[in-house]
Design brief:
By secondary structure, this protein is of the alpha+beta class. It has four helices and six strands; from the N terminus they run βββααβββαα. About 25% of the residues lie in helices and about 25% in strands. Strand 4 and strand 5 form a beta hairpin.
């Protein structure tokens, strides 16, 4: 997918979101947690379909650095040490466009797994 040119990126630490503006006037605000759990890295995506690794306890994650990689991608470093995903402009655009669906899918997967967004919460299911 060809994405429009990325015009600006703002990392807002107080609201914990990255604001993206594209040349087609599309603007997206993606939370740090959303970006972390949807990292394009093999650590998150696995090495093929069905090998995804559910990211848990990432509600409080913070972006500590955003570095350009060539003219097409960004390496985002998070305070949990994760920095291996290269977020292409096209991938960021897709995340923005599909944010609501991807987020709801993530929350549903967390619930099915009995896990939490909070790093210090253990979910215990009682009965069936």
């Amino acid at each position: 997918m060809n994405a429009p040119q990325l015009v600006s990126i703002k990392v807002k630490k107080t609201s914990r979101e990255m604001q993206l503006v594209f040349a087609d006037q599309q603007e997206f605000a993606l939370t740090f947690e959303f970006l972390r759990v949807h990292s394009p890295s093999a650590e998150v995506k696995g090495h093929g379909p069905g090998q995804e690794i559910l990211q848990i306890g990432k509600r409080d994650v913070v972006i500590t650095a955003v570095n350009p990689v060539g003219h097409y991608a960004f390496q985002i470093t998070f305070n949990d040490g994760h920095d291996s995903g290269l977020y292409s402009t096209a991938y960021l655009y897709r995340l923005g466009q599909q944010q609501e669906v991807l987020w709801q899918d993530y929350l549903a997967r967390l619930e099915r797994a009995g896990e939490s967004q909070d790093p210090d919460v253990q979910v215990v299911r009682l009965g069936n």
